[in-house]
Amino acid sequence: MLQESTTWDPRHIFRDPSTSFKTYVLFLLVVCVVASIKLIRVWHGAPPFRLSRQANSPSYPQLLQASSASLKQWISFTFLGWGIFASMSLYDVCDRLLDEKRIGSFVILFVIEDFSSAFSMALLVVLFLFLARWHMLRRIEHLRN
């Protein structure tokens, strides 16, 4: 009789995301929605590639300045949110590891994988915020010239 051998691959283990991770993803989604609303407000005054429509308006550069400053704050807030999430997650993982008698290398790899995915998501959101802010600053510069 032929025996088949099966291998166990830990990369295919499905783990439900924790409540703190779900809250973190919701936070990142809210940040993206806020940035999108700010972009839509700016584009409502002057659609992309039609900035000359607002060249003589004194309120439009103020809107751009305020939106740019707000996005700068959101960038900082996103990094702070990631830092808080990372520290809370690290504490929870260390607390669970203290309960175990043996710490395997797979557990450490899962921790690193979770942190890298959370940090990647934060960086993508910050990249979106940075590009939106850069767009607004370029519009301000164009209006000044």
SSE order in H/E notation? HHH
Biggest pleated-sheet summary: none
Shape: elongated
Helix content: over 70%
Unreliable spans are: none
Rg, alpha carbons: 23 Å
Describe what you observe in this structure:
This protein has a domain at 20-27 and 58-145. It is 74% helix and 0% strand. The chain contains three helices and no strands. 16% of the residues are buried. The model has no long low-confidence stretch (mean pLDDT 81).
Tag the structure with descriptive keywords.
145 residues; 3 helices; 74% helix; mainly alpha
What order do the helices and strands come in, and which of them pair?
Layout: H1 19-45, H2 59-99, H3 105-144
Helix pairs in contact: 1-2, 1-3, 2-3
What is the gist of this entry?
The protein is mostly helical. The protein has helices at 19-45, 59-99, 105-144. The chain has three helices and no strands.
